Amino acid sequence: MTSREERHPSGTGSFALRSEASTLSPMTPERMELLTLLRRARDLIDREYARPLDVPTIAARALMSPAHFSRQFRAAYGETPYGYLMTRRIERAMSLLRGGMTVTDACMAVGSTSLGSFSTRFTEIVGVTPSAYRAREHEGVTSLPNCTSKVVTRPTRRSSRIREADDVTAA
After folding, report:
1. Is the pTM of this model over 0.70?
2. Which of 25, 26, 72, 123 is buried deepest, with most CB atoms within 10 A?
């Protein structure tokens, strides 16, 4: 097994050893089982996003400890379980806001308990406040079939605040 050094994504200069085998693992029966368990947990998030879910609850569905589950989920799907849950909630809130629901009602309907945290996360992911998003014209999206509108309106994470701060200090 070979290893290589990689610079930490934050650019701090610290290095981490990453095994080549971990990034290019072959599809073994164990790997298939792991992906099946992770898919089961992701399906739980997709189905029950409006419920109060936390990482230990989701990890239990995947039959893993919370820390191990979080690492494996991030490796498989590119984001943390909590990040995926919040993206799913924001995605559903976008749909509700397009339908004319108030911001407060949409916040509560998707399982968020704090309007302030919901608005902050919504703005971070979508790029506009929930009120501004609700006020927009959505006629083009509402005329699309649901399966297509989900793909077109899927929120994508904007760059992190840390990276933005690094860009400001570098300028």
Report:
1. no
2. 72
